[in-house]
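Narrative of activities, Objective 1.

The group set out to show that a structural description can be obtained from nothing but a protein's sequence at a throughput compatible with the screening campaign. Below is one input-output pair from the validation batch, recorded exactly as produced.
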Amino acid sequence: MSKGGFTGKGVFGTLSYLVVVYEDGKEKQCNFKHEEDVDRFVAYIEEKYPDIPVHSLEAERKLAEKEK
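Output recorded for this entry:
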């Protein structure tokens, strides 16, 4: 966390979100209350719609490197 990020006057938290990229290149950020919901949604898409990519090209490259 950057210097000064916590003031002691509140709660610091994260926001789980999923970015959907449409065929025309437009993007939509979808917010979720719980990170597990994002994981379940992505798993559902992978199972029901295997032709829809669930990672960016950069993420796919990094995953492939990690497997090696």
